[in-house]
Write a structure and sequence with these properties.
Layout (H helix, E strand, L loop, with lengths): L7 H13 L4 H15 L4 E7 L4 E8 L10 E3 L3 H9 L3 E3 L21 E9 L2 E10 L7 H19 L19 E4 L1 E4 L2 E8 L14 H23 L11 H11 L2 H12 L4 H16 L5 H21 L14 E5 L4 H5 L6 E6 L7 H9 L2 E4 L4 H4 L5 E5 L4 E4 L3 H13 L4 H5 L15 E6 L7 H5 L4 E5 L1 H5 L7 H15 L4 E4 L26 H7 L1 H14 L5 E5 L5 H20 L8 E7 L8 H4 L5 E4 L1 H9 L6 H4 L7 H16 L4 E3 L7 H9 L4 E4 L1 H12 L3 H13 L7 H12 L4
Parallel strand pairs: 9-10, 10-11, 11-12, 15-16, 15-22, 16-17, 17-18, 18-19, 19-20, 20-21
Antiparallel strand pairs: 1-2, 1-6, 2-3, 4-5, 5-6, 7-14, 8-12, 9-13, 13-14
Helix pairs in contact: 1-2, 1-4, 5-6, 5-7, 5-9, 7-8, 8-9, 17-19, 19-20, 25-28, 27-28
Protein name: phosphoenolpyruvate--protein phosphotransferase
EC number: 2.7.3.9
GO molecular function: kinase activity; metal ion binding; phosphoenolpyruvate-protein phosphotransferase activity
């Protein structure tokens, strides 16, 4: 039996020194694997990282071919490395190639190696990677070597958790820790909460892994345990926790765990093996979580929350961070935790707490019971959300569906903002206007429609009284998914949207990605100006398989009913013809297959590229309808990035030059008798909506929360005199007229609620 060259403490001290050196991430990893190989007399030491897509990537090696680093991958459960990652258990073999799970990767050059020891790299019980040593000769790795590898793995886990690790991520890698994420969890307490991430247990970094004085470490642990138990007793004596309290029984169980002799005994045993008190807690917590997370009994898994709560609290006491409990919260705090015991939840300021998101929480867990009693929005089983979150990240918690949006895209955030706004105090006022026809005082009918993108916001059609959906952004489904949605998944989404809308029309815009709408699984080369780059229809025509699949899904979702499809970012009329050919081919394909096709398919073009204004005579005879995307159109007309406030604020979208361009489209659509809808942000602002109506635009699509204010303005409006006034201003050769000021004068004159 082989032993470590200098014992486990020597290796740990060397690793600690390496972590403190001013090295880059890759150089530090390379030195770590070199040290481990040297101390363990191993011919090979390799470190694999579990990527976001479920593959294990070789990140560093001593002894295998250097060119295999960042090239060799194994799926979770594949090979010995994949087996260790899946089971979160060490594996020691004297003849690795003979194991049934052995998977050979020729590019690594690992042919001559037989002895094998691999350990999982765990963080809070979750597998982050695998650390491996190998030897040419058959040998048995000793218990001290296994222990040293497990402790080393803990150090590597901390390294992965730091922002420094991001420097190893190559452009185009599947590891993208900062992209928007959506988690489909379990609804624990209903409601909707928008806010900022507050990590319930900000990671306590354990720097001291070695027990220089074992007796002193045990004494530190005893003192910390006593301090923690006292804090629990104090909480039980709190006014909310009197015998009549519903929470009392839960906290009594919690205190029982805090005094469990078996748990304390394992901590002491870890210190006896040479670990510091903090490292002992870290090791016992990791091992316990790794085992309990793989249990199928929901009761056992729920008890893990209480044990984890204790370990986290104990770590903070040992590291002097105990005062972090119950820390000051932002006004819109949403707690994110791997788990949370009821005691810690009750320590937070409930006046600022908006929601809770847990990785494991079940509906019968103690913290879920407490959350419901406090009226706090809660979602559980949001897998791996802690490792993907950072303090202060924007987050949305939908307690009705169990959905959590981390770092939501602006469109997703706006959707939920609209939902929250509708539930505010003016909701009742606008609800009273729901069934009134949207007609001005002088008899002009204005069609009001929703902009949408999530099935979750479609039920608001019933609350606002909108006549349909003028723009359904299909790209949101692609942006929040971790992989390309399949045909059946797309069909299901579109079918649900049509079902909820009922008899009201829904206009589905084809996939509009690229630019600021990043899809993680469809990466392309970086562009200096992505808003004017490979995006939207340009991308779709270059990827015909993607376009045809989406069109097929839309046609199938109609189930024989009419279907409206909007083609985004048309630059020239011939592109619209190409899109129409794709639609027709898919219709013919479904007919040949005996599938039901829509009774009528209307294909529209989105006008948002200025060059199309000079091809309206070619486009409009071929389009069933058109829609204006004011966001991009105004941006391109002014050459001002709408996301850059330094320039975008200088160009009023309803100033004379932009309003003339919009009226040009209105006039052309009227000549060809083609329905025209405004789908951009302009339509949802009462004064801007007034400008659009004044130039003859009678179909406006907007966010749901804008329907009420715009409709209220319409009902009090006499439009014809304003149209004449605006027409005169547009015809005037000078640009001296300030359109916004002109409209405000009419607002005041007619006493309009703008």
């Amino acid at each position: 039996m082989a032993t470590l060259t200098g014992g486990p403490r020597v290796l740990l001290r060397q690793l600690r020194e390496t972590m403190a050196e001013p090295l880059g991430s890759q150089d530090r990893l390379n030195k770590i694997v070199d040290l481990i190989a040297d101390n363990m007399r191993a011919d090979v030491c390799s470190f694999y990282v579990l990527r976001d897509d479920g593959a294990l990537e070789l990140f560093a090696t001593h002894g295998l071919k250097a060119e295999a680093v960042h090239m060799t991958t194994l799926r979770l459960g594949e090979g010995l490395v994949g087996l260790i990652a899946a089971e979160a258990e060490p594996l020691s073999l004297d003849n690795a190639p003979a194991h049934p799970s052995f998977a050979y990767r020729p590019e690594t050059g690992e042919d001559p190696f037989y002895a094998f020891l691999g350990v999982p790299v765990l963080r809070a019980g979750q597998t982050l990677g695998v650390l491996v040593v190998q030897n040419k000769d058959r040998r048995v790795f000793g218990e001290d070597e296994v222990e040293a590898m497990l402790t080393t793995a803990t150090i590597l886990a901390e390294m992965i958790a730091t922002s420094e690790f991001d420097s190893l991520i190559k452009p185009g890698s599947d590891i993208d820790l900062r992209r928007p994420r959506t988690f489909d969890g379990l609804a624990l307490a209903e409601g909707i909460a928008l806010g900022q991430v507050v990590l319930h247990d900000p990671r306590v970094v354990v720097n001291n892994f070695i027990a220089d004085d074992i007796d002193a470490e045990k004494q530190r642990l005893d003192l910390a345990l006593e301090k923690m138990r006292v804090s629990i007793d104090v909480m039980l004596d709190h006014g909310d926790m009197q015998p009549s309290s519903d929470h009392r029984e839960i906290l009594e169980t919690y205190r029982m765990f805090a005094n469990d002799r078996g748990w304390v005994g394992r901590l002491m045993e870890a210190i006896d093996n040479g670990l510091s008190a903090e490292a002992a807690v870290e090791r016992v917590q990791n091992d316990t979580r790794a085992r309990m997370l793989r249990q199928t009994d929901p009761y056992i898994r729920d008890r893990l929350h209480d044990l984890d709560d204790l370990a986290n609290r104990l770590l903070r006491v040992l590291t002097g961070n105990a005062d972090g409990l119950g820390k000051e919260l932002p006004d819109n705090a949403i707690l994110v935790a791997r788990n949370m015991g009821p005691a810690e939840l009750l320590e937070y300021d409930r006046t600022k707490l908006r929601g809770i998101v847990l990785e494991e929480g079940g509906s019968t867990s103690h913290v879920a019971i407490v959350a419901r009693s406090l009226g706090v929005v809660a979602v559980g089983q949001a897998e791996s959300i802690v490792s993907m979150s950072e303090e202060g990240d924007d987050i949305i918690v939908d307690g009705a569906t169990g959905t959590v949006h981390l770092r939501p895209t602006p469109d997703v955030e706006q959707t939920y903002v609209e939902k929250v706004k509708l539930s505010a105090k003016r909701r009742a006022h606008y609800l009273a206007l729901r069934d009134l026809p949207s007609v001005t005082r002088d008899g002009v009918k204005i069609t009001l429609l929703h902009n949408s993108g999530l099935v979750a916001d479609l039920p608001m059609l019933n609350e606002t009284g909108a006549e349909g959906v003028g723009l359904f952004r299909t790209e949101l489904q692609f942006m929040i998914a971790s992989k390309l949605p399949r045909l059946n998944e797309q069909v299901e989404l579109y079918r649900d949207a049509l079902r909820i809308a009922g008899d009201r029309p829904v206009v589905f815009r084809l996939l509009d990605i690229g630019g600021d709408k990043v899809v993680p699984y469809m990466r392309s080369a970086a562009e200096e100006n992505p808003a004017m780059g490979w995006r939207s229809l340009r991308l779709a025509l270059d990827r015909p398989g993607l376009l045809r699949t989406q069109v097929r899904a839309l046609l199938m979702a109609a189930e024989g009913k009419p279907m409206k499809i909007l083609v985004p970012m048309v630059t020239e009329a011939f592109e619209f013809r190409q899109a129409r050919m794709v639609v027709q081919k898919e219709i013919d394909r479904l007919k040949r297959a005996g599938e039901t096709v829509p009774t009528k398919v209307e294909l529209g073009a989105m006008i948002e590229v200025p060059s199309l204004l000079f091809e309206l005579d070619q486009l409009l005879p071929e389009a069933d309808f058109v829609s204006i995307g004011s966001n991009d159109l105004i941006q391109f007309l002014t050459a001002a990035d709408r996301a850059n406030p330094r320039v975008s604020k200088n160009y009023d979208p309803i100033a004379l030059p932009r309003l003339r361009a919009l009226r040009h489209i209105v006039d052309a659509a009227r000549r060809y008798n083609v329905p025209l809808t405004m789908c951009g942000e302009l339509a949802g602002k009462p004064l801007e909506a007034l400008a659009l109506m004044a130039i003859g635009m009678n179909r406006l699509s907007m966010g749901p929360s804008s329907i009420g204010p715009v409709k209220e303005m319409i009902l009090g409006l006499e439009l014809e005199p304003i149209r004449k006034s605006v027409a005169a201003a547009l015809a005037d050769g000078s640009d001296g007229v300030a359109m916004r000021d002109l409209l405000k004068e009419w607002v005041d004159r007619q006493n309009l609620p703008v």
